Amino acid sequence: MRAMTYRGPYRVQVENKDVPAIEHPNDAIIRVTLAAICGSDLHLYHGMMPDTRVGTTFGHEFIGVVEQVGSSVQNLSPGDRVMVPFNVYCGSCYFCSRGLFSNCHNVNPNATAVGGIYGYSHTCGGYDGGQAEFVRVPFADVGPSVIPDWMGDEDALMCTDALATGYFGAQLGEIVEGDTVVVFGAGPVGLYAAKSAWFMGAGRVIVVDQLEYRLEKARSFAHAETVNFTEFDDVVVHLKRTTDGLGADVVIDAVGAEADGNFIQHVTATKLKLQGGSPVALNWAIDGVRKGGTVSVVGAYGPIFSAVKFGDALNKGLTLRMNQAPVKRQWPRLFEHIRNGHLTPSDIVTHRFPLEDVAEAYHVFSAKLDGCIKPVIVP
């Protein structure tokens, strides 16, 4: 089969690999029909994620058609059109039984630190991802779901991570009616978090980024106020001035490890790899939220430490909430919003590339070229 493979930082290509086989009676083999490149895939592409091995296939956002199932699989059949959450999880461990699918204890040798994720390095279990013609899906009765007939392919694809994660970010904020919510990052997750904040009763939503075309999308898609942080000496001071001097009630960090805005933080994290990520957006979140407010973190950070302003968080009495999204837990409510026309997830898809052009797709997305917000890969 043809599959995207990692060859080193900033180098990916399409190669021939063996079609994955059933390795366990609970496995399924999925013929991928659509995959996406996630902003967090860029952390791998940029060489920031430990134990990302040459030859690995990325891709934790994908949908497809069931090609083959193991002898124990009961809920899927060949020919089913399915969506697969990015979490690999068993469904039965201490954490899964509490709905914490992203913290599953049985799918990753590094499970004390992180759960299993498709195509996201051996730090996250070493599973090949879906930027390929076929992918093996373990615990096939647990993660994948048949896509409802009324749901379009690209809408379903967005539910496998970006939409579910954005929605989860707003959930973690524990937004109450009338709250002012600031979202750092106008990428796909930030756009979905801003949109979701309205569903949860926000009275005001402000999106912060530096790319004008993405801020325009935040205004048209999420109906948010926008702030370009490059226009202010101190974006935190500006946010305080626009929130009666108090700060926002809830701030969501939808940026994660590669935040711009502070040269030293950016270099020590993304160039020198001395931190698990550049915590510029997270530190702005801590400083920009009001005392007693809530900071929600769904932007991805690496497993080592980062220079976070924890003392400020302590002294302001903040609530810090974070996790990788337990994707499937979000689906019932998201399906309701999509079916009722409150949300069209595919509205943020800007580019579609054939699998053969995956190197170009990564370059365009990484360099923020051509107004790219969300690229989709078609095998």
From TrEMBL:
Domain Alcohol dehydrogenase-like C-terminal as annotated: residue spans: 188-259
CDD domains given in the database record: FDH_like_1 (cd08283)
PROSITE patterns registered for this protein in UniProt: ADH_ZINC
Keyword hit for Repeat: no
GO molecular function, one term: oxidoreductase activity
InterPro entries tied to this protein: ADH-like_C (IPR013149), ADH-like_N (IPR013154), ADH_Zn_CS (IPR002328), GroES-like_sf (IPR011032), NAD(P)-bd_dom_sf (IPR036291)
UniProt domain Alcohol dehydrogenase-like N-terminal: residue ranges: 25-142
Keyword terms, alphabetized: Metal-binding, Oxidoreductase, Zinc
Lineage top rank: taxon: Bacteria
SUPFAM superfamilies linked: GroES-like, NAD(P)-binding Rossmann-fold domains
Cofactor(s), by name: Zn(2+)
UniProt similarity note: Belongs to the zinc-containing alcohol dehydrogenase family.
Protein name, UniProt field: Glutathione-dependent formaldehyde dehydrogenase
Species assigned in the record: Pseudoclavibacter endophyticus
